[in-house]
Design brief:
heterodimer, A: 501 residues, mainly alpha, 2 strands, B: 149 residues, 5 helices, 77% helix
């Protein structure tokens, strides 16, 4: 597949452009609302993708992902409340600059850095995916199984305060995905004879339950009457060349870190934003100005969290293995349209893959344009009270679930998962780990069983193949680093009270 | 309820789920004993893994000195929302002809419940937002996407 043999005019079709515009708008809107992030935005849009063309559907979700990453900074800067974990790093200098100078200036730095980060991530996706897919073509079932395990180990280790409960969440996700007819043997598993379960639990219903319903119940429980007040003045997002040059260094740092961290499973935009912020501060000539409204403290994390999107899409497209809940949902849009992402997608669907690459760049530019025009509007949306927002999101989520399958049982599934995860989240179980496992389960099971069938039941193929050994080494490294980090943290916690006494 | 007690209950439920899951998986093995790496293989591994992890988490909880209390603020309101959502789904499932009135009713009831006391202005805003949502669903889903409820 060559990158430049592509019908660029086709990319600018009405369906693709409207998909990008709708995705960007919804992403910015949902991202701007405190507590709702990229995952909720993508989940709410997923049911609409059924009736769309594959490219337009995927671009809409990618645009929502990009838009939500920038949108999260709006509430961080204006209200001092991070809309997403990734925007928490932006809050430090963003809110300080908004108070000291003007919110518009802080938002302008955020928008410019998000655009540069997004474009950088898009270029990484464009130029790295073909070489990576060449490597991926040499991988067999044992390697795909191990890469899936690597993703789950990383997510279980990093996404929750309790590793054991994250691991239980992973196993529950894998178990839930075994419901239905086994694709290899056609045996009925956990269907209890009901034809409604023959195809397994519907992904959209599970996703909406875990991310939209559980989040809404959480808002009913704690955030229903929180009032936000925004200053409607000074929201113009304009920067001059000198101001832009001042943050170039921070933007490159953020873009580089975001792309690399996005590629790694389990890390995500939150980690990349904090890494970028720390590096920008530690390498700055005036580190003492960080925290007082230094624009570099906005540019670095914002460039990083948007560059993460491109990096995170890389393993989805080239390996067919997502590293986070958001990319797992985007991958499900491929599957909904009968496309299996992975190294073979480059030869099977070259137009689609090229469309995603270039569409990604267009989506980033759309985020800049729509963000520039509508940031003042999104800032005002923040004052919509949650008691109005929650019923609207709940009903739209239910209508979306039904529209994706025309089956009422899916609504019950969504409600049950919503209640279950509203309670399980309080006990430190991990929803992202569950979802990633749910999406990865068929890949893991099929590759494991195929590998074992080929090797006549022998497990030695996992330790005798070069790539397998390398992946096993990485898994071991992740586990060892995770254990070391937890031991260090617990020794610091035990040392603190004794030092205090 | 304390965090520890809530954890025991959750882990206990998950343990029972694990046993039931494993039981079914073993049944699959019996039916297809000729194939060692058959449909039961993966579920059996997962079932055992869940039981082991639940037991480990149970022991960890037992040894911990965590005195946190798990609270659900507005628990009544959350429960009422779940019940109303359930009633909405049931009404939709069995009385699909009145889908739009049911959407309007659920949205208005939830907004009125959530907004607590309020003057006529607040009620007017709730009715306006509810009407806009209902019309929006009709326009987007029914007319544009041809979704029949």
């Amino acid at each position: 597949m060559t990158l430049f043999e592509f019908d660029f005019l086709g990319l600018f079709s009405l369906s693709n452009l409207s998909g990008i515009a709708i995705g960007t708008f919804v992403g910015l809107l949902i991202g701007a609302l405190p507590g709702l992030g990229a995952t909720v935005a993508i989940v709410l849009l997923l049911p609409f993708t059924y009736s769309m063309e594959p490219l337009a559907a995927i671009l809409m979700l990618v645009a929502a992902y990009q838009g939500a990453e920038y949108g999260g900074s709006i509430s961080s800067i204006i209200l001092g409340i991070p809309g997403t974990p990734a925007a928490a790093a932006t809050l430090i200098d963003g809110n300080a600059l908004a108070k000291r100078s003007s919110p518009g200036k802080a938002l302008a730095y955020s928008l410019a850095a998000s655009t540069v980060g997004g474009l950088f991530g898009g270029l990484v996706l464009l130029f790295m995916s073909v070489p990576l897919s060449v490597v991926a073509l040499q991988l067999g079932d044992p390697e795909f199984f191990l890469i899936g395990i690597l993703g789950l180990v990383a997510v279980a280790g990093l996404s929750s305060v309790d590793v054991l409960r994250s691991s239980i969440s992973v196993v529950l996700g894998l178990m839930t995905a075994t419901i239905g007819i086994d694709v290899i043997s056609s045996a009925h598993r956990y269907t209890f004879g009901s034809p409604l379960l023959f195809d397994g639990l519907h992904l959209v219903a599970v996703l909406v339950g875990i991310f939209a319903f559980a989040e809404m119940f959480s808002m009913i429980s704690t955030d229903l009457h929180r009032k936000y007040v925004t200053d409607r003045r000074g929201l113009s997002t304009r920067l001059n060349i000198a101001e832009l040059r001042r943050v170039l260094r921070a933007m490159w740092i953020g873009s580089g870190i975001g792309s690399v961290i996005g590629f790694l499973p389990g890390m995500g935009a939150g980690a990349s934003a904090w890494f970028a912020y720390s590096l920008a501060r530690n390498t700055s000539r005036k580190p003492e100005t960080f925290g007082t409204g230094n624009p570099e403290g906005i540019a670095a994390p914002e460039a990083a969290n948007n560059a993460t999107v491109g990096g995170a899409m890389l393993p989805v497209i080239t390996l067919g293995i997502p590293g986070s809940a958001s990319t797992a949902i985007i991958m499900s849009a491929f599957i909904i349209h009968g496309i299996q992402p992975g190294p073979t997608v480059f030869t099977a669907n070259p137009a689609l893959v090229n469309g995603i690459f270039y569409g990604f760049l267009v989506a980033t530019l759309a985020m800049f344009v729509i963000g520039k025009l509508l940031t003042p509007f999104f800032a005002r949306v923040l004052v919509v009270p949650n008691y109005i927002l929650v019923p609207i999101v709940m009903i739209l989520a239910m209508v979306g679930v039904y529209a994706s399958s025309y089956v009422h049982v899916d609504l019950w599934v969504a409600l049950i998962f919503g209640v279950a995860f509203f309670l399980l989240n309080k006990l430190d179980f991990s929803a992202p780990a569950f979802i990633l496992a749910f999406v990865l389960s068929p890949i893991l099971e099929e590759s494991l069983r195929r590998a074992l069938l080929i090797s006549d039941g022998s497990y030695t193929m996992f330790i005798t193949r070069g790539y397998s050994i390398a992946i096993l080494a990485v898994i071991t490294l992740v586990v060892v680093l995770g254990i070391a980090s937890r031991l260090r943290r617990s020794s610091q916690e035990t040392a603190r009270p004794s030092a205090g006494s | 309820m304390t965090y520890k007690r809530a954890s025991y209950i959750a882990l206990g439920i998950l343990f029972v789920v694990g046993i039931a899951y494993l039981w079914h998986a073993i049944g699959l093995t019996d039916a297809r004993a000729r194939d060692a790496i058959g449909p039961a293989y993966f579920p059996t591994v997962l079932g055992v893994l869940l039981l082991v992890l639940c037991a480990a988490s149970f022991l960890k909880t037992l040894r911990s000195s965590d005195e946190r209390v798990v609270t659900i603020p507005n628990a009544g309101l959350v429960a009422l929302s779940v019940v109303l959502a359930g009633l909405f789904i049931a009404a939709w499932q069995y009385l699909s002809a009145i889908f739009y009135p049911v959407v309007f009713a659920l949205c208005l009831i939830l907004m009125t419940l959530f907004s607590r006391a309020g003057g006529w202005k607040r009620h007017a805003v709730n009715v306006g937002a509810t009407a806009a949502l209902t019309v929006g669903i009709y326009l987007l889903f029914d007319l544009v996407m041809q979704v029949r409820f």
